[in-house]
Write a structure and sequence with these properties.
single chain, alpha+beta, Antithrombin, Chain I, domain 2, Alpha-1-antitrypsin, domain 1, 2 domains, eight-stranded mixed sheet, 6 helices, 18% helix, 46% strand, elongated, serine-type endopeptidase inhibitor activity
Length: 296
């Protein structure tokens, strides 16, 4: 999947491998990540944790258009041998923008006992790419660069988000996206959104059964260095803003690496699509996921 700027979208992925000046990285690994992933490889004195953290944080901020800041702090550097950083940025205008004059405040049903008012972007009487099954409705909203789309997975049951999460596996997502077809929608109502959240990737990966990486005795990162390495921590931050004009999204991940000796997310059918309860969204490039999140 090629992520580059185009006339209709600003998009970039940046990778960085930042290591302590005493870290013995394999030359073959450094060459591979530089050539294959375009990774920036730099060496710093990790004893100056505050200074080094600021340099790496500036890298993340620059690559995400200033949307993700203060992500790398001194505690991420202290005691580490290396930090692997990944950042992704996306900004694009809709292929069909929403008319601001149609934006209205209305209720959003967060749960059975919690509701509140949000601003909805509204559109009337337009053909959209759309699919559904017995559980979910899926409109796909293209950007000016139509290889990118914002896909909303809205459970048909108002409070069916938990059930949807269990049923929305990779195969189901692929199937739904493959069945998108032009469908007349009388009304589309989608909340304007601005979301930012931090995630503990270590705990998420452990819950998925990925544990060897974090075990100093079982981790095998021998492709990186002759020293015995393991991952001590992994953090992720995501940002997304959706309005009448388009979408801005950014995400950053940092992985903290220790040496073993160191300390320790065609029929034209008339329908309405009213996203007034929790849903999942996936921003795709050629139907490959770039960002996945939920609005609750």
């Amino acid at each position: 999947m090629n992520i580059t700027n185009s006339p209709g979208a600003q998009a970039r992925i940046a990778n960085g491998f930042f290591m302590n000046k005493t870290f013995p990285i394999r030359k073959s690994y450094a060459e591979m990540i530089a050539q294959k992933f375009g990774a920036l490889i730099e060496t710093y004195d990790f004893r100056q944790a505050g200074k080094t953290a600021k340099i790496i944080d500036n890298f993340v901020s620059q690559k995400t258009g200033g949307k993700i800041e203060n992500f790398i702090k001194s505690d991420a550097v202290e005691g580490a041998d290396a930090l692997i950083v990944n950042a992704i940025y996306f900004k694009a205008d809709w292929h069909y923008t929403f008319n601001k004059n149609f934006t209205r405040e209305a209720l959003f049903y967060h749960s059975a006992d919690d509701k509140g008012k949000v601003n909805y972007m509204n559109e009337y009487g337009r053909n959209r790419m759309y699919a559904e099954n017995e559980v979910v409705q899926v409109p796909s909203l293209p950007y000016k660069d139509t290889s990118y789309s914002f896909n909303i997975f809205l459970p048909k049951k108002r409070f069916g988000i938990d059930e949807l999460r269990t049923k929305l596996d990779a195969a189901t997502i692929r199937n739904l996206l493959s069945r998108l077809k032009s469908t007349h929608l009388d009304q589309i109502s989608i909340p304007k959104m601005k979301l930012e959240k931090d995630y503990d990737l270590k705990q998420a990966l452990l819950a998925m059964g990925v544990s060897d990486l974090f075990d100093r005795n079982l981790a095998d990162l021998s492709m990186i260095s002759e020293d015995h390495l393991y991952v001590s921590d992994a953090k992720h931050r995501a940002f997304i803003e959706v309005d009448e004009k388009g979408t801005t999204a950014a995400a950053a991940t940092r992985i903290k690496i220790y040496r073993k000796v160191s300390r320790e997310i065609h029929p034209r059918i008339q329908r309405n699509f009213i996203a007034d309860h929790p849903f999942i969204f996936i921003l795709t490039k050629d139907k490959n996921a770039l960002f996945i999140g939920q609005f609750i």
